[in-house]
Fold this protein.
Amino acid sequence: MPELPEVETIVTDLRPRLVGRRIASFRVGKKNLRRPWNTRWTSALRGKKIETVVRRGKWIVLRLEKGLHLVFHLGMTGQLMVVQARQPLASHTHVVADLDETDEQLHFRDIRRFGSVTFFAGEAHVNRFFHDSGLGPEPFDLEPGYWRNCLARTSRCLKAVLLDQRVLAGVGNIYADEALFEAQLHPRRLGRTVRPQEAGRLRRAVIQVLNRAIYKRGSSIRDYVGGNGDRGEYQEEFRVYSRAGAPCVRCRRPIRRIRLAGRSTYFCPSCQRNRSQFRSQESRVRSQKKSEW
DNA sequence: ATAGGCGCCTGCTGGC
DNA sequence: TGCCAGCAGGCGCCTA
């Protein structure tokens, strides 16, 4: 579910409510999440003070004293929030941490359980974890030269490149589509056919769309809520995502939905023309057949 | 190297 | 009302 803007909002909400507090006790439910929980980690966490709360891509990292780290991924339906201890436990709550000196708790809730919680005993372990997964740079730190290179040496389509967390971290299905619309590039456009000027446009579009979404506290479609439990508002600003058949805000022609990289993909066929100079044999054959008619 | 399909899960919606 | 297919902010594995 949550992409960079949603995770950023959660981290911003949680930071003032978590930093400086101690984890008095920590409980993990019986149902499996994406990664297994080692019961030894539970006792290691007891009494530890939370020092920082940061985001890396779509990951949430809690640094505790003595270099201990607690790392969350929200998958599709994950929620991480601080709630009053006395209110009844919401369904699908898999982690509860009591926060000392308050009547508050940190809850991790995840309906579909594609999310995860993992423990690391030191800074180096977390860094190695991200390094080994090949996690790419933050979009805001994306160097133009690196980005042009990534595009130039791949024959994957732009949608697939944007979704690849090893190229850049944090973009998911919504913001990939929104950024491609902003840059007026076709989602099927091949990376190696993109000109330097277009690569720059796309890089800036990604940053702009993410920043606007952060400002609106992310997009709430069904499950997403921020660290205080309230919804985002960027879903009101979607130009293409989930707008199949609705008029394009730029040209009024209907937005189309296709299946790409295994995901629903929305774009304006008129504003986002596919200008690949080197199209595949197959699509050339198709165009020829079409012109025969 | 790349696309596509599937699986991991639960819940919601729309059609019949 | 029930049933069934299809859909969903992610991601890793497999095959061709």
In short: The mean pLDDT of chain A is 93. Residues 32, 34, 75-77, 92, 110-114, 154-157, 160, 222-223, 259, 261-262 of chain A lie near DNA strand B (CB under 10 Å from a C1').
